[in-house]
Amino acid sequence: MKITDQCVAALTWTLKDTLGETLDTLDEPVEFLIGGDDLLAKIDAALQGKVAGDELKLHLEPEDAFGDYNDQLLFLEPRNLFPAEIEVGMAFEGLPPGGNPAAPTDLLYFVSEIYPEHVVMDANHPLAGIAIRIQLTVHAVREATLDEIGKGSLGVGFFKLPTPEHSALDDHDHDHDHDHDHDHHHAHGHTSHHLH
Questions:
Q1: What percent of the chain has pLDDT over 90?
Q2: Looking at CB atoms within 10 Å, which of 121, 148, 158, 186 has the fewest?
Q3: Of 21, 96, 50, 146, which Cα lies nearest the Cα of 109?
Q4: Are 25 and 14 in contact, with CB atoms under 8 Å apart?
Q5: Which residues, listed in sequence order, are joined to residue 25 by a DSSP beta bridge?
Q6: SS3 category, 164
């Protein structure tokens, strides 16, 4: 069958930046809901009408991918607000208590730089401002179930970000739903965890 909205496609891909550096690879086919929240709109659109065995190459400008870089989402925070064992790249949901009150609490912040007295926290998506080249192969297409359509997702988003549970700050609960939030998609291939 051909890909349409409300169907499920099993895909593999290689994502690269414009310099040719590999950002992410999906070696084994993973199912995504087309027309839901799983993929970027431009990828959904490009897949329409494709069938198993088709390959495509796409170039996504930042506005079609993860947006432009916003330096208003950088915050310099006191080092003593953070656990001793933090590392660059670690994710926090909101800033710790005592952090900048102007910082949105519903964003995922990444440790960008660590200094003796301060930590630079960045709420931009790790791929903000970056154009992406994607080479994608369709492996299978099937109709989505009503349950899958109702959820709008198979639970495997495009580029999942590490969740705060994987960071040093896991002392508050994280049971609210982030599926609709495109900021929860992931960047660096070596830390992306696609569910198989």
A1: 73
A2: 148
A3: 96
A4: yes
A5: 14
A6: helix
